[in-house]
Design brief:
The protein is α/β, with parallel strands linked by helices. It has one domain: Rossmann fold. The chain is built from six helices and seven strands, in the order E-H-E-H-E-H-E-H-E-H-E-E-H. It has a seven-stranded mixed sheet with strand order 3-2-1-4-5-6-7. Helix 4 links the parallel strand 4 and strand 5. Helix 1 runs parallel beside helix 6. The relative contact order is 0.16.
């Protein structure tokens, strides 16, 4: 059974879906560790409520990027982590961590990469750009993490139609549903 670390920054709804699927054995893996770059992330509460070891490793407690990377790697090794899932994680993963877990870190992004990806494109910013540009389709992408921003090899994408009367909230909700679905598929694939 694969041991998974989930990196979060916020609410942790993708984390919650992963917890459900690993515990129901839909995924042949277990979430062994949750790391947040935001000490106030609700996802940390979700982890605690699910008895999953969790910790804050961020700018406040590790100002130096090299120390932060070393602490992260030490914790990943301590929990025998096989791979990492970035689920709404807003920090850049340090190169040292990428080197240690090359081709074993995946990210979920709320657009059809390469569109609306890279520096500055995350969360609602992506959905606003889709609506402002009048795009007919949007979607979500799961990809491997490399040294670039949203530039790693694509694992899976799914698109949705953007309706003429689409609002920011309705598009956000549609994309969120797709994110849960394709992230679960990608993690199940990696664990099989």
């Amino acid at each position: 059974m694969k041991k998974i670390a989930v990196f979060i920054s916020g609410n942790g709804s993708n984390l919650e879906e992963l917890i459900k699927k690993t515990r129901s054995k839909s995924i042949n893996g277990e979430i062994a560790l949750v790391i947040s770059d935001n000490k106030n992330a609700y996802g940390l509460i979700r982890a605690i409520n699910s008895n999953i070891p969790s910790m804050y490793i961020g700018n406040e407690n590790f100002k130096d990027i090299s120390e932060r990377a070393s602490k992260t790697i030490n914790e990943l090794k301590r929990f025998n982590i096989d791979f990492i899932v970035l689920a709404g994680y807003l920090s850049i993963v340090p190169p040292k961590v990428i080197d240690s877990y090359r081709d074993r870190i995946i990210n979920i992004h709320p657009s059809l990469i390469p569109k609306y990806s890279g520096k500055g494109f995350y969360g609602e910013i992506v959905h606003k750009a889709v609506l402002e540009q009048g795009d007919k389709y949007s979607g979500a992408t799961v990809h491997f993490v490399d040294e670039g921003i949203d530039s790693g090899e694509i694992i899976i994408q799914e698109k949705v139609k953007v309706e003429e009367d689409e609002t920011l909230e309705s598009l956000k909700s549609k994309i969120h549903d797709i994110e849960h679905k394709i992230l679960i598929e990608a993690v199940a694939k990696l664990c099989s």
